[in-house]
Amino acid sequence: MADMNEFDDIDDYSPTDYSSDDDTDSSETSFTVLKEADICRCIEHEITGLSDVLSISKLEASLLLRHYNWNVCKVHDAWFVDEFGVRKKVGLLLEKPEEKQVSYDDLTCGICFESYSQDFIKSVTCGHPFCSECWGLYIHTNINDGPGCLVLRCPEPTCAAAVGDDVINELGFEEDRKKYYRYLARSYVESNKRRKWCPAPGCDYAIDFVGCDGDFDVTCVCSHSFCFNCCEERHRPVGCDTVEKWNLKNSSDSQNETWKKAYTKPCPMCQRPIEKNAGCMRMSCTTPCYHMFCWICLKDWSVHGYGGSCNRYVGNPQPEETSPLRQELLKYQHYYDRWAANEKSRQIALTDLGKVRNNHLKEISKLYGQPETQLEFLTEAWQQIVECRRVLKWTYAYGYYLADDDDAKAKLFEYLQGQAESSLERFHDCAERELKIFIDPDELSDSFDDFRLNLIQLTGVTKNYFKNLVTALENGLSDVASSSKQQKTSICRRLKVPAGETCNRMTTPEDRSSNLYTAITRTSANPNNTKAPKKTMGAAPEITTQTKRRTADNLTPQGEWSCEFCSYMNPGSAETCEACDRGAWTCQHCTYANPRTATTCQMCAETQ
């Protein structure tokens, strides 16, 4: 991993540097869901193939595959080296022992020792006679003992002859046969590391995983999504080892119960207990208070806004007065509370998604005369909110295990996380608040088309940003230097800087600080460089020429102040934000952020 000190400037970095072709979706090609019928077809295909190659019966091929754990290559290797030895090991006798010439009344069952006519006596290739009733009880006992019944042998204690499916089908009880074939399907699926059962309760589907670039996220047709590698819930951008450590810490730390609150917090104004029953973090107290505040940090929303910096962990201002153990405890509390809050919001969003699918689509279709097929944008929006809440939740586990001594990487991570949280809050609030307007039959709105365009745009922008963020975090934010140089070269070429001259586009404080936010959002907001659509209701506010200046009452104990737009922590001496410099203006054609002094866009030459 590269040293962060080698990077020219972390402000030139963007998660879009790792973005892949939008036309390729690994989730579409990396796995296949196997239903019961699919598994049966796969088993039959394996048996038939081996039977044809070795010129043996399907019954014998099935027994061979089970013995060698469904590994066809191992069967071939062993068979062609020593066929007789393999037959003896598996219990496949070449010839049936010579039968004694006896009358029908002379056949005695080897278990109950009763005499039966030949019609009631059955045997496998070894010829040992047992009555049908004893066979049924023998099969029943072994199947109830577990999957060992798949390599069942003759009831005669000294005999190793294999008992095949034909005997199970003919003499086994119906429930035993069903259980036997469930064991057979399990043995086939679990014999290959590429296949796993869906871990959802009650789901009988399996996943056949091909794999693609370390992405283990899979989704079963039962709608359960999980990581194929560790079978936990999907957890990108953190790895399976981080999830294991995080879950272990959550379950083993006894002090964890101290801050696992019951999802209620007192209103900062009137101290009345408030339950979080909406998805976004903007909370409002009830009558007569109506105080609006952030659910995470409890700050006044008029000061906090969508760009609040409550994602950033700030240590104790006087660490010498706090033990290292206490510091670690406070850090864990910070990240766990935000991890749990986003999981709570995700669960609420899942409930809202169900309401949209089952109720709201029908209501809006009836109120506004729109077919439900044209309202899929609502479902897609809520699906994206659920996914983004999941990603944002796991970024807090990522941040907890981020190295404390890598200050540059920590600041970059907090900036990217803050932008993601801010954009998701706007998106979630828009979907949650404005949807209520259009499902109210008493107040029909004439701005439904504007709402549709705005929500579709917010869905696309948020999806692309989070996709790029996940890829960047999975790469460890490690390629900042190379990304910066490539980005500078590309911009210098577009600006047509003469050879031999130094491009100062990326070196002035204003341009360098505003570049990060622009680079991150350029691909997400306008990936095809098309003309930006008109601003619609609920859209994020445009960047203006006014900047957020520090005031004495918003300084932290360390003497820093947080930019309300990008959440970057600035020194108290800074008059404007050193990270985003909100004095810049954004080109409406290409979304490029330009310096205040520019009258035309330095990227596409469009007039301001």
How does this structure look, described?
It comes from Populus alba (White poplar). Its cofactor is Zn(2+). Residues 557-580, 581-608 form the RanBP2-type domain. This protein has helices at 26-29, 36-54, 58-67, 72-81, 83-90, 132-145, 165-171, 174-190, 240-252, 301-304, 324-368, 376-400, 407-438, 448-474, 480-494, 509-525, and strands at residues 31-34, 107-108, 115-116, 121-122, 130-131, 195-197, 206-209, 217-219, 225-227, 264-266, 273-275, 282-284, 292-294, 560-562, 569-571, 585-586, 593-594. The chain is mainly α and 608 residues long. Among the domains are: 36-90; 104-187, Zinc/RING finger domain, C3HC4 (zinc finger) (Herpes Virus-1, 2-Layer Sandwich); 262-305, no CATH class. It has a three-stranded antiparallel sheet. A two-stranded antiparallel ribbon has the order 2-3. Helix 2 packs across helix 3 (58-67), helix 4 crosses helix 5 and helix 12 (376-400) runs antiparallel to helix 13. It is elongated. The model is unreliable at 1-27, 100-104, 254-262, 480-523 and 527-551 (pLDDT under 50).
